[in-house]
Amino acid sequence: MSDTPPDRLSVNQNSPFFQRELLERGIGIRFKGVERRDVEEYCISEGWIRAALGNKVDRKGNPLTIKLNGPVEAWFERPAAGEAEENAEG
User: Fold this and answer.
1) Which pTM was predicted?
2) Which Pfam families match (predicted)?
3) Residue 11's pLDDT is what?
4) Structural domain boundaries of the chain?
Protein backbone atom coordinates (compact mmCIF):
# COMPACT_ATOMS: atom_id res chain seq x y z
CA MET A 1 0.00 0.00 0.00
CA SER A 2 1.33 3.40 -0.97
CA ASP A 3 2.11 6.10 1.58
CA THR A 4 0.48 8.70 -0.70
CA PRO A 5 -3.30 9.19 -0.44
CA PRO A 6 -5.33 8.83 -3.63
CA ASP A 7 -6.10 11.83 -5.81
CA ARG A 8 -9.80 11.58 -4.98
CA LEU A 9 -11.51 9.99 -1.97
CA SER A 10 -15.01 10.07 -0.46
CA VAL A 11 -16.45 9.03 2.92
CA ASN A 12 -19.84 8.21 1.31
CA GLN A 13 -20.21 4.43 0.91
CA ASN A 14 -22.31 4.87 -2.25
CA SER A 15 -19.57 6.82 -4.03
CA PRO A 16 -17.26 5.08 -6.55
CA PHE A 17 -14.36 6.88 -4.77
CA PHE A 18 -15.05 5.25 -1.36
CA GLN A 19 -12.19 3.05 -0.03
CA ARG A 20 -12.73 1.75 3.50
CA GLU A 21 -9.18 0.46 4.07
CA LEU A 22 -7.71 3.89 3.30
CA LEU A 23 -10.23 5.75 5.47
CA GLU A 24 -9.43 3.43 8.41
CA ARG A 25 -5.84 4.76 8.34
CA GLY A 26 -7.16 8.29 8.76
CA ILE A 27 -6.81 11.03 6.17
CA GLY A 28 -5.69 14.54 7.05
CA ILE A 29 -6.88 17.34 4.77
CA ARG A 30 -5.45 20.84 4.52
CA PHE A 31 -7.54 23.25 2.42
CA LYS A 32 -6.19 26.73 1.70
CA GLY A 33 -3.62 26.25 4.49
CA VAL A 34 -6.19 25.25 7.17
CA GLU A 35 -6.73 21.69 8.46
CA ARG A 36 -10.35 20.60 7.99
CA ARG A 37 -12.25 17.83 9.78
CA ASP A 38 -15.60 18.26 7.98
CA VAL A 39 -14.53 17.06 4.51
CA GLU A 40 -16.88 14.54 2.88
CA GLU A 41 -14.92 14.22 -0.39
CA TYR A 42 -11.83 15.76 -1.96
CA CYS A 43 -9.98 15.90 -5.27
CA ILE A 44 -6.36 17.09 -5.23
CA SER A 45 -5.84 17.40 -9.01
CA GLU A 46 -9.02 19.43 -9.57
CA GLY A 47 -8.48 21.46 -6.37
CA TRP A 48 -11.77 21.10 -4.49
CA ILE A 49 -13.39 19.63 -1.38
CA ARG A 50 -16.97 18.89 -0.41
CA ALA A 51 -17.64 20.02 3.15
CA ALA A 52 -20.71 19.32 5.29
CA LEU A 53 -23.14 22.18 5.94
CA GLY A 54 -23.55 21.80 9.70
CA ASN A 55 -26.14 19.23 10.74
CA LYS A 56 -28.37 19.67 7.68
CA VAL A 57 -29.34 16.51 5.79
CA ASP A 58 -31.17 15.75 2.56
CA ARG A 59 -34.35 13.67 2.32
CA LYS A 60 -32.31 10.45 2.26
CA GLY A 61 -30.42 11.33 5.45
CA ASN A 62 -27.12 12.21 3.76
CA PRO A 63 -25.36 15.39 4.89
CA LEU A 64 -25.80 18.45 2.69
CA THR A 65 -22.46 19.56 1.27
CA ILE A 66 -20.93 22.55 -0.44
CA LYS A 67 -18.14 22.37 -3.01
CA LEU A 68 -15.22 24.69 -2.24
CA ASN A 69 -12.39 25.39 -4.70
CA GLY A 70 -8.76 25.94 -3.71
CA PRO A 71 -5.47 24.14 -3.07
CA VAL A 72 -5.90 20.75 -1.34
CA GLU A 73 -3.27 18.71 0.51
CA ALA A 74 -3.89 15.19 1.86
CA TRP A 75 -1.87 12.81 4.03
CA PHE A 76 -2.31 9.61 6.01
CA GLU A 77 -2.55 10.09 9.78
CA ARG A 78 -1.38 6.52 10.52
CA PRO A 79 0.99 4.21 8.60
CA ALA A 80 -0.34 1.07 6.92
CA ALA A 81 -0.49 -2.05 9.12
CA GLY A 82 2.44 -3.75 7.35
CA GLU A 83 4.57 -0.59 7.47
CA ALA A 84 3.99 -0.09 11.20
CA GLU A 85 5.13 -3.65 11.96
CA GLU A 86 8.26 -3.26 9.83
CA ASN A 87 9.20 0.01 11.56
CA ALA A 88 8.71 -1.52 15.02
CA GLU A 89 11.02 -4.44 14.21
CA GLY A 90 13.76 -2.37 12.56
Assistant:
1) 0.81
2) DUF3297
3) 94
4) 8-76
